Amino acid sequence: MIALDHVTKRYGDLAAVDDVSLTIPSGEVYGIVGQSGAGKSTLARIVNLLERPDSGSVVVDGTDLTALGTADLRAARRRIGMVFQRFNLLGSRSVRGNVELALELDGVPRAQRRARAQEMLDLVGIGHRGDASVHELSGGQQQRVGIARALAARPSVLLSDEATSALDPETTASILDLYRRINEQLGLTVLLITHEMDVVKTACHSAALIEAGRVVESGRLVDIIRTPGSRLTSQLFPLGTIPATVESDATVIDITFAGGTADRPVISRLAREHDVDVSILGALIEQIGGTQAGRTRLEVPTHAAAGIITDLRGQNLLVEVLQEGVRA
């Protein structure tokens, strides 16, 4: 488990991380999401104390990293593997040599580190490229080398800082699939730092939204989706503004659902049982946190809106009123 308690990091007058408290459960794929400059990369570097916070504590697997001296902190960092956006591979070394590097610095005997490097290259799907130069690899393959290197020292946490942002969509999908597989096979806690909501949708069990150095929302995605007014949910399901064609006297509602409600004929039943015309203004369905979830925007007659909303909420659906029409 990773626990940040009232962590603050300032650069002059700028609070890059501002009084952040956050708990990341063991064994999850957890996303820290925010726009450029929000503070998410600083937060990532605080997790392994590459940046020391001005105040607050950072606990990883029961150890308060902020209380450790230099030697003990160096040892503790071995439990936190780091994957970088720009790969940070050494061109003077082979693929296998890059993976072996951290083990070599730790004094692991040559035969053992070679075997471990090969094991990790096999795990990430490029075991056949061990003798190749890193310059011969595609961007996605180089990222796999970076992941193998981060796993070589058997960490309990894998921290990825915007590690897919330089990759094309197809390669990104394959790397996210690899993160999920690593999480499942090795039981690692995977912390993904990203500005891309698609990364959160595809890979994460839980997420935190950070803005101006503060965590404004966090939790398991299946719970966040069911939370009224959730900003993360609105970004996961961006339906945009109400179309100009909608009359001001119409009632517009958003229905958000997760789990077993996704495949029920909710809208057709509404139209039939309430004897009204229901217009669909937008809809998105995604696989999020291992659960099918979605949001649908409806235009309904104002005279029937109250009954429709009561009906929907009775089915444990989240209903939010965007425009409340005035009865004629």
Tag the structure with descriptive keywords.
six-stranded mixed β-sheet, single chain, Alpha-Beta Plaits, Rossmann fold, four-stranded antiparallel β-sheet, 328 residues, 2 domains, alpha/beta
Give a verbal description of the structure.
34% of the residues lie in helices and 29% in strands. The mean pLDDT is 90. It has a 6-stranded mixed beta sheet with strand order 6-7-8-3-9-10, with helices on both faces. A 4-stranded antiparallel beta sheet has the order 2-1-4-5, with helices on one face. It is built from 11 helices and 14 strands. It has helices at 40-47, 70-77, 95-105, 110-123, 139-151, 169-186, 197-203, 221-224, 231-236, 266-274, 302-314; strands at residues 2-11, 14-24, 29-33, 55-60, 63-64, 80-83, 157-161, 189-194, 206-211, 214-220, 251-258, 279-288, 291-300, 318-323. The chain is α/β, with parallel strands linked by helices and 328 residues long. Residues 2-237 form the ABC transporter domain. This is ATP-binding cassette domain-containing protein. GO terms for molecular function: ATP binding.
Structural class: alpha/beta
Largest sheet: 6 strands, mixed
Strand fraction band? 25-35%
CATH level-two architecture of the largest domain? 3-Layer(aba) Sandwich
Question: Into which percent range does the helicity of residues fall?
Answer: 25-40%
Describe the strand arrangement of the main beta sheet, using strand numbers.
6-7-8-3-9-10
The number of domains: 2
Q: Determine the mean pLDDT.
A: 90
The poorly predicted ranges are none
If helices are DSSP runs of H or I spanning 4 or more residues, what is the number of helices?
11
Question: What is the H/E order?
Answer: EEEHEEHEHHHEHEHEEHHEHEEHE
Q: What gap, in angstroms, lies between the N and C termini?
A: 57 Å
CATH fold title of the largest domain:
Rossmann fold
Question: Rg from C-alpha positions?
Answer: 24 Å
| The top level CATH class name of the largest domain | Alpha Beta
CATH homologous superfamily grouping of the largest domain: P-loop containing nucleotide triphosphate hydrolases
Shape: elongated
